[in-house]
Fold Sialidase domain-containing protein.
Amino acid sequence: MRGRKAIAASLTWALSISSVYSAPSAAVKECEVADHEVTFKTIYVPPSNYNTPKTLYGRTVQLEDGTLLATWENYSPEPPLVYFPIYKSTDKGETWAPFSNVTDQVNGWGLRYQPDLYLLPQAIGDLPKGTIICSANSIPTDLSQTKIDVYASVNGGKTWSFVSTVASGGVALPNNGETPIWEPFMMVYDNQLVMYYSDQRDPAHGQKMVHQVSADGITWGPVVNDIAYSTYEQRPGMPTVAALPNGQYIMTYEYGLGPNPAGSGTFPIYYRISSSPLTFDSAPGQILNAGGTVPTSSPYVVWSPSGGPNGSIIVSANSHAEIFINTNLGDADSWVKYATPQSRAYTRHLRVMDDPDYLLIMSAGFLNGDNYVTDSVMKLPNL
Ligand SMILES: *[C@@H]1O[C@H](CO)[C@@H](O)[C@H](O)[C@H]1NC(C)=O
Ligand SMILES: *[C@@H]1O[C@H](CO)[C@@H](O)[C@H](O)[C@H]1NC(C)=O
């Protein structure tokens, strides 16, 4: 009930300033910096009193004027409850400065894990085009519950308001038999928001991957399976999705305890391609194998029109500093490993820049690490 009140307040406010987006303002001029190569720049170094791993799980969003916003899991000492810092770059990822914070406005738990940033490409319900969405796993300090909440900013990331709760789960431990939810990833499809996440609540699966859709950002439909294996212990997770130029969609995932003929680890990267991003459940799974190299753990996928008529599918994984590129629309035999100037990281983030020949890669460190946050922007190879 607390949530309902906040929704009403935030939407009234969203409507009142939505006109900001109809004026092509001075803000557009603010960031007239061309995309260029940026090599391993520091976004944020946490103070020594932060808890291990200090930072993790970086994400960005790019606004229409080219401004980049970045956030990450931020392990600051509590109180105050943990939050997602928003850092801003107006020079295409070269330098970064603190800009705002996304804080828990409804649970009294903090915004702890797995932020996702997304720029609305169209209006959804009362949220105007250009709204920035920050989805989050809100979790109390004792990790006893998990909740995927949606926050929105209609002023370029300066202030944030709670919009809705998508789903709730149990204790935030990734063990079979527990019931948490994890790793929200949002996109718009067919005039609806789609929220993908990993789900341990189904007693038939240690973990599966699911989505829910919403036409207004407030009311969310039923849980639909995307990837669920019949072997209970197998744990597909970490959904990200990209649209391909032939009308199809690719989802990459880590396939916990999935088959890995290369023997490179127990979380091999797999992918599925489907004609709709709502029907991955019936699409065949395919291992990502680049000439014998099978990357593992915490993938991220994007597509760029750079690289020829089919563009480039680009995948990052925890196991490699390199990226994996496919210029044949995901054809199983067409993956190429390609060097980057950026460090490896747990769930490293990718973003295709305005000039799609340039790719931003963001790292915020490793599980149990002593981490800090960095980015690079590299030119794609045009393979
Ligand atoms: C974010 O919150 C922290 C902790 O309350 C505070 O120290 C910091 O100044 C805030 N940052 C911004 C940009 O408001
Ligand atoms: C585009 O992808 C298709 C499907 O794999 C492939 O048959 C075709 O050769 C590719 N085109 C180019 C120019 O690479």
The domain at 38-379 is CATH 2.120.10.10 (Neuraminidase). Confidence is low (pLDDT under 50) at residues 1-28. The chain has two helices and 24 strands.
